[in-house]
Write a structure and sequence with these properties.
The protein is mainly alpha-helical. The chain contains 9 helices and no strands.
Length: about 210
């Protein structure tokens, strides 16, 4: 007599769990790397799957669509960059303005490591904003605003430390920094050199009211 509990079940094979952290995270990491180089519209899902070694049919076990995948990548990048900013802007072994300079040096090193092929994912996607899926614009703007808030907090500490004049609007100055920084990153990729980053930060620091 055959035990029915041991009889192979017929029908469709079971789905791969959408919560499989290893494969899902690998896809997001790979997508983040590629999108920092070439943007969303130019990125094909096939290339991501081939790099990770995941069958094409399995992609939709993890993401509903390329748009859903793009949002997951943006979330991942936003979290990664927020942690990077915390690491530098909250480092009390340095003065507040030294922390800003340290962040810039770290970013320069990262771009040089990849021969200026990679830039800022938020900056890359912002260039495609008119053709991106609905909701991407708001996501990108919210991410930039969160970066501004982190920098503004650091600049207020600079005021408390006497490095920055009291009359300075730190929120406005932080917004100015990120507008200029994103432009400098794009120019650095264009010329494959850290020179635009140096030009920007030197100008920014020189213009700070003391």
């Amino acid at each position: 007599m055959i035990n029915s509990s041991q009889t192979p079940r017929r029908g469709r094979p079971p789905k791969v769990s959408r919560q499989n952290p290893d494969t899902r995270d690998a896809l997001i990491r790979c997508g983040t790397e590629i999108l920092t180089e070439q943007g969303f519209m130019a990125t094909g899902i096939d290339g991501v799957l081939k790099t990770v070694g995941v069958p094409k049919g399995s992609f939709y076990h993890y993401f509903d669509s390329k748009e859903d995948f793009g949002r997951a990548v943006m979330d991942n990048y936003a979290a990664y960059f927020a942690n990077k900013l915390k690491r530098w802007f909250l480092d009390d072994s340095m003065t507040p303005l030294q922390r800003v300079l340290a962040f810039v040096e770290d970013a320069k090193g990262g771009m040089e490591k990849y021969q200026f092929r990679r830039g800022c994912l938020v900056g890359n996607l912002s260039q495609e904003v008119t053709i991106l899926p609905a909701g991407f614009r708001e996501h990108l703007d919210a991410t930039l605003f969160s970066w501004q808030q982190q920098l503004a907090t650091c600049l207020r500490e600079a005021q408390d430390a006497g490095e920055l004049a009291r009359h300075v609007d730190c929120a406005e100055l932080a917004a100015y920094f990120w507008i200029g920084w994103e432009g400098a990153v794009l120019r650095a990729r264009l010329v494959k050199s850290a020179a635009p980053l140096n030009t920007f930060i030197n100008g920014f620091m020189a213009g700070l009211p003391r």
